[in-house]
């Protein structure tokens, strides 16, 4: 395993998000000091001219593309045009302008939603483009698939070293706790906390509670990203394929939404009734990642689900009312 020189210059796009901020923390903890970041106000990644100017003025060795428009089932249903347009524009601009500026190394962060709704479980990288996508987040998934293929195409045509990692469901510090646009873990943390504070008798959760989901703490994801970036080209290529170069990142285990809700209620200290509204959509029945490829490359997750959820709730409770938390 090689190690990127400490003199390496990074651009982490999306550093204020949950994943981007974790990657910045990990890079800093490893001793990297040359890390470029920009807020949306400072750099609009959907603007081709702005991204071109950024790379012209800020030479970097490695781009980590963690910026994305993300959200849960409700947000994806309500704003499909926003999700496909903004994510396509971010990927096209950053990947192409990085190439145009001579950046040879890039890491794209994708999502497990790229796989077909009824893909065999656990989902292997080879399941990509083998079936129909889950309808509730298809626009977002199509954009992420396009990002993977952009990286593969630039590698094939131009000899770049653009890699893609596909995380399972992530959670942790700096997650989005918006009541309608958040993912399941932050949504449940907020709802159980507020129900506990209000002494509510019941919390109603969308769906049947039967779908199974895999969850990875974002600090594990950041560690996996740096691990993938450090893999030498020969080893990486030996464990991937030119047209199948993305790598799954996950724990390899999953739980039902009902089990997750019960565990979070226990951690938060909510003792009321939990009811599932089966008239609301469930999403895909199961989304478990096959992580054999990453294991063969020397990495596996370390943070257990209960431990991770406890730390996530502690962070939420500590940061309530502060600017860092997105409500």
CATH architecture: 3-Layer(aba) Sandwich
Question: What is the CATH C-level name?
Answer: Alpha Beta
As residue ranges, the low-confidence spans are none
How are the strands ordered across the major sheet?
2-1-3-4-5-10
Tally of DSSP β-strands: 13
Major pleated sheet: 6 strands, parallel
Average pLDDT confidence is 94
CATH topology: Rossmann fold
Distance between the termini: 40 Å
User: What is the overall silhouette?
Assistant: globular
Number of helices: 11
Helix and strand composition category = alpha/beta
The helical percent reads 40-55%
Task: Describe the protein in words.
With 327 residues, the protein is α/β, with parallel strands linked by helices. It has one domain: NAD(P)-binding Rossmann-like Domain (Rossmann fold, 3-Layer(aba) Sandwich), CATH 3.40.50.720. 42% of the residues lie in helices and 15% in strands. The chain has 11 helices and 13 strands. It has helices at 18-29, 48-57, 73-78, 80-100, 138-158, 184-198, 218-230, 233-238, 257-268, 292-296, 305-319; strands at 9-13, 34-36, 62-65, 105-109, 161-167, 169-171, 202-206, 212-213, 215-217, 247-249, 255-256, 273-277, 286-287. The strands form 4 sheets. The protein has a 6-stranded parallel beta sheet, sandwiched between helices. A 3-stranded mixed beta sheet has the order 11-8-13. The radius of gyration is 19 Å and the shape is globular. The termini are far apart. The model has no long low-confidence stretch (mean pLDDT 94).
